[in-house]
Amino acid sequence: MSEMAAGQWRTVLEEAHEALRTAAEGVPADAWERPTPCERWNVTQVLQHAVGDQLAFAAAIDGGPGPTEDPFAPSGRIDGDKLAGLRAALDASARAWKRVADDAPEVPTPLPQGKLPAEVGAVACALDAAVHAWDIAVATGQPSPLGAELARPLLVVARQIVEPLRAYGAYAPAIDPAPEADEVAALLSYLGRDPRLTA
Known about the structure:
about 200 residues; mainly alpha; Four Helix Bundle (Hemerythrin (Met), subunit A); 6 helices; about 0% strand; MDMPI_metal-binding; metal ion binding; CHP03086; DinB/YfiT-like; Mycothiol-dependent maleylpyruvate isomerase metal-binding domain-containing protein
């Protein structure tokens, strides 16, 4: 990721975490069971998946507790405060990445690729948060949390890590972007999402 200044991945990760937090906090009380761009999952399940993935990244780095359920088989049930688990997961992820040097050549990740350079691993973690923020926002009628500045580094890393993940069902097959696609549309299309979707 030569386009990134040293340590810039920290800003990308912070922005992606904030996007996910904002989208989840903006879900109306009656919208948790709405369908999302993730075909099999409703809003609650996407949130559970996103929480599990952040915990998995944190656990890979610092050896702490990982997700309590399979992020790829979310139950759709959250007892009590639906956002408490998200806040804890984002805090755990942020704390873990703070321990990582800007230019660490190998950082453990929960991805099939295993250890990755800090900037790739952190932006992979950010990619997961940001795209699920978009899923939740679209499903619940909120503005897209993705802008060009965030989408640009996410797309660079997506092109490095996503292909092996499709085999695990983590991402749908890519969609050909429209000729006039901007960075956000190109990212979403690459991740198998239709950028024209609205609530």
